[in-house]
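User: Sequence recovery, please. Input:
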C-alpha cells in the first residue's frame, strides 16, 4: 500500500521508513508526498553535529538524545556517514552505539551513505529532515563529517550547528578556519579526558576572538566534553538552548528561514538539473557519443557543458550530431 501524507503527519514510524525507502528508489508518489508535507515543516528544532571522522559525534549524539528523551522530547537523527575506507564500519558502529534507542519509537534514526549519492546527498538529507519534521519530531539531529563543501552547505538548514573537535588539533585549526568556522555556533572539544584539551580549547577561543562581533551577535562558546561518559553534555544542551533563543529572536528568525529556503532550493535544483541533463542526453543517445568525443579529445567537457546548460541543448546537440554523422534527416 502506498504511504499516505496523513500517516506521516500522524508520526507513523513505519510509514516514514517506507517513504524514505521510496524516496531512495525515486518513486514519483513519494516525491508527491514530499511536496505535500513541506508546509507542515518548520516545527522541529534542527541541530547539526559536524566534525572529522572519529571525533565522537555519534557518541555525543547518543548522549544528547538520552538527555532530550528525559525532557520528553522526540528525536529524529540523520547520520550522514562518510563510508570512507577509513571508517567503513561507521554505519554499523552507529547502529550499535545507538541501539539503546533502537526500540524507542520516539527516536527515529536514518543513516545515509555518502557513496552512491552523486550530487544528491544534500537533497536526501533535506528530504529526510523534512519528513522527520513533518512527523512531529521535536528535535532533528544531522550528524555529518562536514569535510566536503556539500556537507558544509547542508548544515545551513540547521538552527544550531555544533562543531566537534578533539585535543591536539594543531594544523587542523587552520583547516577549521577555512570552512567550518563560518558555520559553527558552538564548539565542543570532545575527548577532553585526553591530554591537550585545555590547549585546544584556548586555541579555539583565540580563533573565535579574532572575529569581529557586533552588538547582539552570537559569539560561539567553546565547551569541553567527554561524550563517552556524558561529561559536559548538560552544559552543551544549555548552550544549544541559549542559541535557540537567539535564532528565534524576531530579528534573526527571518534570516535563518531565508537561508534554509535558499539551501533547500539550491540543493534540490542541483540534483534535479543534473538528473534532467543526464536524462535528456541519455534519451537522445547523446551521452555515450559525447563521452567518447571528450575521451578522444575531439571536444572538451567545458564546451559540452556549455551546450548542455543552454536551454535548447538537446536540440542543438542533436542537430550537431546529425550533421557530423551526415544523417541530417528532416522530421
Ligand atoms: N577518550 C574518549 N573517547 C571517546 C569519547 N567520545 C567518543 N570516544 C570514542 O571515539 C571513537 C569514535 O566515536 P564515534 O562516536 O563513533 O565518532 P564519530 O565522530 O561519530 O565517527 P564517524 O561517524 O566515523 O565519523 C569511539 O571509539 C568512541 O568510543 C571521549 O569523550 N573520550
Ligand atoms: Mg558517527
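Assistant: Recovered sequence (331 residues):
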Amino acid at each position: 500500500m502506498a504511504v499516505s501524507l496523513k500517516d506521516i503527519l500522524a508520526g507513523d514510524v513505519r510509514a516514514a521508513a517506507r517513504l524514505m525507502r521510496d524516496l531512495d528508489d525515486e518513486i514519483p508518489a513519494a516525491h508527491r508526498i514530499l511536496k505535500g508535507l513541506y508546509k507542515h515543516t518548520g516545527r522541529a528544532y534542527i541541530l547539526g553535529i559536524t566534525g572529522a571522522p572519529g571525533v565522537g559525534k555519534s557518541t555525543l549524539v547518543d548522549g544528547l538524545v538520552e538527555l532530550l528523551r528525559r525532557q520528553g522530547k522526540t528525536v529524529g537523527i540523520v547520520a550522514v556517514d562518510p563510508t570512507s575506507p577509513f571508517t567503513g564500519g561507521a554505519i554499523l558502529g552507529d547502529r550499535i552505539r545507538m541501539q539503546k534507542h533502537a526500540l524507542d519509537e520516539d527516536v527515529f534514526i536514518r543513516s545515509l551513505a555518502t557513496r552512491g549519492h552523486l550530487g544528491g546527498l544534500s537533497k536526501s538529507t533535506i528530504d529526510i529532515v523534512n519528513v522527520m519534521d513533518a512527523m512531529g519530531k521535536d528535535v532533528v539531529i544531522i550528524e555529518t563529517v562536514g569535510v566536503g563543501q556539500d556537507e558544509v552547505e547542508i548544515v545551513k538548514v540547521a538552527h544550531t550547528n555544533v562543531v566537534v573537535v578533539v585535543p591536539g588539533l594543531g594544523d587542523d585549526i587552520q583547516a577549521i578556519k577555512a570552512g567550518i568556522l563560518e558555520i559553527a555556533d558552538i564548539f565542543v572539544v570532545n575527548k577532553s579526558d585526553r591530554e591537550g584539551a585545555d590547549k585546544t580549547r584556548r586555541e579555539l577561543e583565540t580563533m573565535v576572538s579574532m572575529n569581529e562581533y557586533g552588538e547582539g551577535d552570537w559569539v560561539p562558546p567553546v565547551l569541553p566534553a567527554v561524550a563517552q561518559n556524558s561529561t559536559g553534555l548538560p552544559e552543551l544542551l544549555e548552550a544549544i538552548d541559549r542559541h535557540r533563543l537567539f535564532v528565534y529572536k524576531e530579528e534573526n528568525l527571518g534570516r535563518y528561514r531565508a537561508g534554509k529556503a535558499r539551501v533547500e532550493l539550491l540543493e534540490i535544483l542541483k540534483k534535479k538539473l543534473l538528473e534532467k541533463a543526464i536524462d535528456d542526453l541519455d534519451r537522445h543517445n547523446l551521452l555515450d557519443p559525447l563521452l567518447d568525443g571528450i575521451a578522444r579529445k575531439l571536444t572538451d567537457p567545458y564546451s559540452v557543458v556549455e551546450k548542455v546548460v543552454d536551454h535548447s541543448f538537446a536540440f542543438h546537440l542533436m542537430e550537431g550530431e546529425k550533421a557530423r554523422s551526415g544523417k541530417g534527416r528532416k522530421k
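Strands lie at 45-51, 75-81, 107-113, 139-144, 160-165, 186-189, 222-224.
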